[in-house]
Amino acid sequence: MCTLRGGAAVVSFLLGTFPALCQKPKSEAVERGRKLFQSACGFCHGNDATGSRGPDLIRSALVNHDKDGNLIGPVVKNGRVEKDMPAFAYNNSQISDLAAFLHDQTQVALHSASVPRDYPLEKLLTGDASAGKAYFFGAGHCDTCHSPTGDLAGIAKKYTPINLEARFLYPGGTRRMVTVTLPSGQQVSGTLAQMDEFNVALRDGTGWYRSWPRDRVKVEVRDPMEKHLDLLHQYTDANVHDIFAYLETLK
Amino acid sequence: MKLILSVVLSAIALAAQGLDPAALLKPATDTWPTYNGDYSGQRHSPLKQIDSTNVKSLTLAWIFQAHSAAIKSTPLEVNGVLYFTVPDNVWAVDARTGQQIWHYKYTSDGGDHIGHRGVGMYGNWLYFTTPDAHLVSLNAKDGTVRWNIELADVKLGYFSTMAPLVVHNHVIVGISGDVTDVPGFLESIEPETGKVEWRWSSQPKKGEPGSETWPKEGDAIEHGGGMTWMTGTYDPDLNLLYWGTGNPNPVLAGEGRLGDNLYTCSIVALNPDTGKLAWYFQPSPHDVHDWDAVETPVLFDAGFQGTKRKLLAQASRNGYFFVLDRATGKSFLTAPFIESNWASGVDSRGRPIARLDKYPKSDGTLVEPASDGATNWMAPSFDPDSGLFYVIARRVISIFYHTASGKAEGWGGRDRNLWANSVIEAIDYQTGKIRWSHELGDGEVTAGILTTAGHLLFTADNAGNLMALDPETGKTLWHVQAGGHVVSSPMTYELDGKQYLLTAVQDLVLVWKLPGD
Predict the structure, then answer these.
(1) Does the residue A239 lie in any domain?
(2) Annotated catalytic residue: which of B235, B290, B372, B383?
(3) Are A31 and A11 found together in one domain?
(4) Domain harbouring B121, CATH code
(5) Chain A closest CA to B115's CA: distance in Å?
(6) What's the number of CA atoms in the CB half-sphere (13 Å) around residue B116?
(7) Confidence (pTM)
(8) ipTM of the modeled complex
(9) Which residue from B192, B193, B173, B175 is spatially nearest to B184, judged by alpha carbons?
(10) How far away is chain A from the Cα of B475, in angstroms, using its nearest Cα?
């Protein structure tokens, strides 16, 4: 799950999971390069190398074609007098660290198309927990199915903040229940295995798979997530942040 | 003398074996010579041997197994040969029998292998874009390489997936790459030599018209955006090329690029001989939701409020249906084709007015549709018989996060899909009203649409069913479970007096016909 990109995100969505990258600890070379860059280069190129007085280096063709400082090195050592960039007398190992930092920064940009799995709680925690609680027991009628001391006890410890937010909004992976009424009047119930415009299939109470053409039977589907879907169409962003703040109190 | 001789020879060669670009103006029924079948982008075939009365008896003519990634391309069919692609691969297959004639394998130097739409053809030559942003010209006879040019630097995050469009003696080629803040462009390539004839940039240079829609200070305009990753359309009478452009950069973090950000998320009309901009229309000014306006700009001549007009219609990724005067770019109609919550209305120029509170936020904002879009690259269709515009419409609710701190690069955020459902819709282009809507199931349908003069509409649902619907009513007339999620658009051709329907399902090409010889 640490290498998902745009295309894979669609697949993961179909599978009921979410794109969430983990942030790997940076290598020592990257950290050494960062310190060196920020002290010597940051004033002109920005501490994150995205440009300031000097150009953005993350999108620089030279940086992107560089291998371990082979192109960056000469520029640093010789400077670019015509562009007012001074020369820096760094040794090869320092150049290598600078290159490691710059390549890492380009990777950060490349992989910015995802919400990290460890996305910080404080960024999400902007709501009012008491308003969220009021919604839970009031307008949302969440307590019809859920209890903060029952199924939701400790829910904030069970999921990372970013996943808790997605999960309360619309939990994936829950099977729908279905009752099929045959032409004889006999009814078969079970978990819905598959349904399209033409056929319906279930697993009955004994675990056996059975299917019928839709035009021969009557089908009643019960979706345990129906209420979540109704609310998903109604929530304001304030509701979302308030409910999230409330659920985060359920440690 | 030598030059004259070679011109004469190449004219003969065009007539004898390959595809004369003049034939693209009115394609014969035994060909499907461009990505969309013709320049209009209607994806409507005049073929009617397979019709609403006999479609139930369709039978398999042949199957081709590519043993590859999923086929997203629409095959060309010229002189009884089909040409189709997946990233790094081109096949030539006998359109009568499914026999492979040749297979070309390209070795790309990295790049993005997300998908591939197909090839363009000029004379005896094919034009194939690559994951590492090259354009390869192949000999259509045997798949050998004539030349290979670099379109853009793969190391900067460029790649290409689109099917080139041949107009006159120009090969029009677009580019992809929105994860790395690189500027987009469209190029015209000389078909014999691979020389660049013109390049239209998706963003003006500082000081040029349109540059006022970017911040004066900083380098946002140079990062630009506006990738040209879908095949456009062409009006020979107006001699205008119509092309959609993608999102500005960074994708979800717009604070560093305040303004409309022309010509990103736009439909542009260009002169194919010069690359000069004639007009533009911007479906998503200052986009912060990745709603590329690259969906096919479909061209048709039809009455609009009592007057016959040259129209251009796009069902755009942002959930709005746009009808324009394609001579001027003037808006005739803007109407939502799905429920959405990101716009508060439509301005006097026909552009949706974005709600600032629905921009991505660090604590999350619920937005419909998601970045995947209310529709996307799957082909729409316009049926002149029914007068209806057909589109795969997805309702996708998503929560958008702005995750960047400091100066955003790349995406600067992402949305997380929560729920999706898909339908096929028939839109009345004069009112924007949905004439009928046919349920296709939960999730995001990625199949395209073909309509035919046989009063049929072909598409697929989310459960792997290929389907034929009645274009007037949306009623299902034929279906078959094809065993995979369809990520391609159907096409059709006629050979030896027989109509074939081609559907690609994952890495299989399934070709259908009526029973009998």
Answers:
(1) yes
(2) B290
(3) yes
(4) 2.140.10.10
(5) 9
(6) 31
(7) 0.92
(8) 0.92
(9) B175
(10) 11
